[in-house]
């Protein structure tokens, strides 16, 4: 009983001793060494029964992690001892003990007694422990630690080391660890901490993971990260208005010393806001869309399409992959011709989410695709959507889809039989149903601009260009001058000026406005 009272007394004194040591480490070294011997013995005892909860041991661990920085030589092995305990017995440790040990390691890392990469590697090993609270703490720590490392400036050497480790995790692991890695990478990009091509391509590699959950997380990053970042910026602007406010100079009030101080504070505050705003605008680097930073989009699209064709996943996952593959094709102007024949099987009016599939099809069209490969797609849409047996809504959807495909690949209009097809679509402009009529008029307007001779004379319009034709496949327009050079020449001749908003104003228009204002003043 006396022994128990002594131990309790020592435990109660630990926070007080901790405070005294931080103030004067040299004077309390003996007391520290005594507590260190207690810690070593408690550690050995705890290793014999790691499943038990030990308040005494966790108190000593917390104490040692707080004061260890004051006695670095004596505590050089402290991080290693705690890490070995976590690595060996992580799965069987009591929840509270495990959390205390992790907190102690994070504290030692913050005090510079532990290399960040070593603790990050341990953190990823601990993801295998079935403890949601622990996983949340690990994700929060890893994110905050990398954020702290890059707070003042980018630590490229350490970043490369951490990224190399994370890349190996994404590439080799298919468990919860890989999913948490992708989650951390996405959050780092979203918070503009890691926005380099290396990070983006690591997430791109995760799209090919055997784990469906990892694939879905990585694909959703590419499809929606820009929208999320825009929302974050809008929320930040809304939460903290940093525009300089109008200064109340008390022009019509009595001048007092207090009012003078308030005015001076307002002036200084506005000056600070302007300096911060200028600093932000000068240091902000342009951020390209993540999908544009992929090193080998063709290979990624081919592998994802192979995965799409062979997968037995639920239809929502297939839609997600269709969306990403089509966006890769459209953004990078890739050639993946079998993708269109694959989508053709889904082009029926009763297909689930058909509007989404049509949108993905249109998204993946561009002028470099051979028109003979897109012609079967257009015919399939016409057969399944634009017939008298279809509903008015289906007809409108079909005509709009054909119009968008032709707008992205105008060479389609040069294919045989497209003249009769376009004229048939123009006939739907006489339908009484509003959506069908609008869709048909939109189609006529597009063809009138690209290739008006395909239309009947009554549909070509009064001011059409009879010589307008779309380029043949593979033909590209060649510039014979610099776009906008005529404005520069007019500016040099003094015919135009720039107003305060940097907008172009022709001097003739300016003179006319002045004359009109003068006439209005005379009439008044």
From TrEMBL:
Q: Answer whether the UniProt record assigns the keyword Nucleus to this protein.
A: yes
Q: Which spans of this chain does the record mark as coiled coil? A: none
Q: Where in the cell is it found?
A: Nucleus, Nucleolus
Keyword Protein transport listed? The answer is: yes
Going by the entry's taxonomy, the superkingdom of the source organism is recorded as Eukaryota
Q: Which Pfam families match?
A: SDA1_HEAT (PF08158)
Keyword annotations for this protein, in alphabetical order, are: Nucleus, Protein transport, Ribosome biogenesis, Transport
Where do the SDA1 N-terminal domain residues begin and end? 63-429
Q: What is this protein called?
A: Protein SDA1
């Amino acid at each position: 009983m006396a022994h128990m009272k002594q131990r309790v007394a020592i435990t109660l004194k630990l926070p007080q001793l901790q405070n005294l040591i931080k103030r004067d480490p040299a004077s309390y070294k003996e007391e520290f060494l005594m507590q260190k011997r207690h810690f070593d013995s408690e550690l050995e005892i705890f290793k014999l029964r790691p499943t038990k909860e030990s308040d005494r041991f966790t108190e000593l661990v917390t104490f040692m992690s707080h004061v260890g920085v004051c006695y670095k030589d004596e505590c050089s092995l402290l991080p290693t001892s705690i890490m070995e305990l976590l690595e060996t017995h992580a799965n069987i440790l009591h929840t509270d003990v495990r959390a205390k040990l992790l907190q102690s390691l994070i504290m030692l890392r913050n005090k510079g007694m532990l290399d960040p990469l070593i603790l990050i590697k341990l953190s990823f090993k601990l993801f295998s422990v079935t403890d949601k609270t622990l996983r949340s703490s690990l994700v929060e720590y890893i994110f905050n630690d990398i954020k702290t490392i890059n707070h003042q400036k980018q630590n490229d050497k350490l970043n490369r080391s951490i990224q190399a480790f994370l890349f190996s995790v994404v590439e080799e692991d298919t468990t919860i660890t890989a999913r948490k890695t992708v989650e951390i990478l996405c959050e780092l990009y979203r918070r503009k901490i890691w926005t380099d091509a290396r990070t983006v391509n690591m997430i791109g590699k995760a799209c090919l993971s055997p784990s469906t959950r990892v694939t879905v997380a990585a694909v959703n990053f590419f499809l929606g990260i820009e929208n999320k970042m825009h929302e974050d910026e809008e929320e930040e602007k809304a939460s903290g208005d940093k525009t300089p406010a109008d200064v109340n100079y008390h022009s019509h009030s009595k001048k007092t010393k207090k009012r003078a101080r308030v005015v001076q504070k307002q002036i200084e505050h506005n000056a600070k806001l302007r300096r911060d705003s200028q600093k932000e605008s000068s240091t902000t680097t342009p951020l390209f869309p993540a999908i544009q930073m992929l090193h080998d989009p063709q290979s990624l699209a081919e592998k994802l399409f192979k995965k799409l064709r062979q997968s037995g996943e639920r239809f929502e996952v297939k839609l997600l992959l269709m969306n990403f593959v089509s966006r890769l094709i459209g953004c990078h102007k890739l050639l993946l011709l079998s993708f269109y024949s694959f989508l053709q099987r889904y082009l029926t009016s009763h297909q689930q989410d058909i509007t989404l599939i049509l949108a993905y099809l249109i998204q993946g069209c561009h002028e470099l695709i051979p028109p003979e490969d897109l012609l079967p797609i257009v015919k399939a849409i016409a057969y399944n959507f634009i017939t008298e047996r279809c509903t008015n809504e289906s007809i409108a959807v079909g005509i709009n889809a054909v119009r968008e495909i032709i707008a992205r690949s105008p060479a389609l209009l040069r294919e045989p039989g497209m003249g009769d097809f376009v004229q048939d679509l123009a006939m739907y402009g006489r339908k009484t149903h509003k959506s069908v009529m609008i869709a048909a008029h939109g189609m006529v307007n597009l063809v009138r601009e690209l290739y008006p001779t395909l239309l009947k004379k009554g549909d070509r319009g009064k001011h059409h260009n009879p010589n307008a034709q779309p380029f043949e496949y593979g033909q590209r327009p060649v510039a014979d001058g610099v776009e906008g050079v005529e404005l520069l020449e007019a500016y040099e001749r003094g015919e135009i000026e720039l107003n305060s908003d940097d907008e172009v104003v022709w001097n003739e228009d300016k003179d006319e406005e002045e004359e009109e204002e003068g006439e209005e003043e005379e009439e008044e």
